[in-house]
Specification:
By secondary structure, the protein is an alpha+beta fold. 38% of the residues lie in helices and 35% in strands. The longest helix is centred in the first third of the chain and has 15 residues. The chain starts with a helix and ends in a 12-residue tail after the last strand.
Amino acid sequence: MQSSERIYRDQAQQDDFFDADLTDARLKVNPQAAHASSHAKSSESLATRFMQSLQQAEATKTVDSLVELFAENADLSNLAMHEPIRGKEAIRQFWQNYLSVFEQIRSHFTHTSEGSGTIALEWTSEGTLSSGEPIRYRGVSILETQAGQVQHFRTYYDSAAFLPQGAKA
């Protein structure tokens, strides 16, 4: 019987959802693609850049490229917060704290919708908590954009997935 990690890895490799490893491999095989890739990034949608940056942050635990997508005065909130946090440094700290909860995590985007200044992302995240316990949860993130940057970020997810194993129904 395969572990859920192995099953998830196999599924992720079969999906066409922004596999950073494949992008890196293509650039190593064809170094000239690096320049073309960086030029193409400027024309990629903000939704695509956000999804790729989040997956890169999950893989590397480095949040710089993700934080760069936010405007200087952006705000971020989830249901656990009483008030949104504001500014890039607070947003950087949020993403660093988020990633520190996991030994490893991978988000798989199942649906995206882009409208005038709004992006909705449906996703499932699967991995291992820092305690070693496996986790799988899903949610929706809403990004309001202005001038090609995230101005407001709100995320809603199944917080019951984070309860201790004995407390889950």
